[in-house]
């Protein structure tokens, strides 16, 4: 949730049974606004809450320029007031998603993981580095936005589309009309294939329906009672929900979970 729209978006969390206490909401809005100013960020998002054994990590990310992915910075806080910058680990790998131990709440705690490479020594991962990785993985694999919310500029910058007016009620219940919140990883022709109408500036982004395995079954959808707000839930990163209000530019995503990936998903759905 972009901090500039925080007050407007928080009430929508009730659509997936989440809430932020009023006192904490005020702290977050104030501290994140100051963080945005102090770090000279063009946009700053509150991602949510990661539940650890002894404390909860509050998570945020932002970028200094108009490009929503370039030089992206990750932050965490324990008290909704003081924010700590997470530096990208120098030796991280996707194997870190196999770490299954519970977060402790101690940022210096060391997790031990056996390497998959034969003859290699075990890997030690600090909790602070693992926290960076979890934010990175959630944003790459699970966060989504409506089609048209992001736009690729001529300079290859990914920016928020100021002309986005939302999906219609009919469009918002179709998985094909949602895209990953990340730079395109698939070829442009693959993302454009099969569309009756397309716009090169915002249809080059990776579609949620062509996802990591199992394809098209990594998310579930539900509507609120009014039929005007749709909520998509990730089944890979349980606790990540993204939402969109029909015929409006109101959308966002929110995470509340334990930071562990659901590796059992292929056994939970019909492939």
Q: Would you spell out the secondary-structure blueprint of this structure?
A:
Elements: H1 6-9, H2 22-38, E1 43-51, E2 56-63, E3 73-77, E4 84-86, E5 110-113, E6 123-126, H3 127-141, E7 144-146, E8 150-152, E9 158-160, E10 178-180, H4 188-192, E11 219-223, E12 229-234, E13 240-245, E14 251-257
Parallel strand pairs: 1-14
Antiparallel strand pairs: 1-2, 2-3, 3-4, 5-6, 7-10, 8-9, 11-12, 12-13, 13-14
Brief write-up:
The chain is α+β, with helices and mostly antiparallel strands. It has four helices and 14 strands. The strands form four sheets. Strands 4-3-2-1-14-13-12-11 form an eight-stranded mixed beta sheet. A two-stranded antiparallel sheet has the order 5-6. A two-stranded antiparallel sheet has the order 7-10.
Major beta sheet, strand line-up: 4-3-2-1-14-13-12-11
Distance between the termini: 33 Å
Strand fraction: 25-35%
Low-confidence stretches: none
The coarse overall form would be globular
Query: What is the string of helix and strand elements?
Result: HHEEEEEEHEEEEHEEEE
Radius of gyration: 19 Å
The mean pLDDT is: 90
What is the percent of helical residues? 10-25%
Output the number of helix runs: 4
Give the tally of β-strands.
14
Which structural class is indicated by helix and strand composition? alpha+beta
Main beta-sheet strand count, sense and barrel state: 8 strands, mixed
């Amino acid at each position: 949730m972009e901090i500039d729209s925080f007050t407007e978006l928080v009430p929508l969390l009730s659509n997936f049974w989440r809430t932020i206490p009023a006192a904490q909401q005020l702290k977050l809005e104030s501290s994140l606004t100051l963080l945005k100013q102090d770090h000279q960020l063009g946009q700053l998002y509150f991602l949510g809450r990661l539940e650890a054994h002894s404390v909860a990590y509050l998570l945020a990310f932002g970028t200094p320029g108009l490009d929503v992915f370039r030089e992206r910075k990750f932050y965490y806080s324990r008290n909704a007031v003081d924010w700590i910058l997470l530096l990208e680990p120098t030796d991280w790998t996707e194997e870190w998603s196999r770490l299954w131990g519970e977060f402790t709440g101690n940022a210096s705690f060391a997790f031990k993981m056996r390497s998959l490479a034969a003859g290699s020594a075990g890997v030690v991962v600090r909790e602070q580095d693992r926290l960076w990785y979890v934010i990175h993985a959630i944003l790459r694999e699970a966060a989504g936005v409506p089609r048209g919310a992001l736009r690729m500029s001529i300079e290859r910058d990914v920016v928020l589309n100021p002309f986005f007016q939302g999906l219609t009620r009919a469009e918002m219940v179709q998985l094909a009309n949602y895209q990953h919140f990340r730079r395109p990883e698939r070829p442009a022709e693959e993302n454009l294939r099969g569309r009756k109408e397309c716009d090169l500036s915002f249809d080059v982004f990776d579609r949620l329906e062509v996802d990591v395995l199992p394809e098209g079954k990594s998310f579930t959808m539900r509507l609120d009672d009014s039929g005007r707000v749709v909520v998509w839930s990730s089944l890979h990163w349980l606790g990540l929900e993204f939402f969109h209000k029909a015929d409006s530019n109101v959308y966002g995503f929110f995470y509340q979970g334990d930071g562990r990936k659901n590796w059992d998903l292929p056994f939970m759905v019909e492939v």
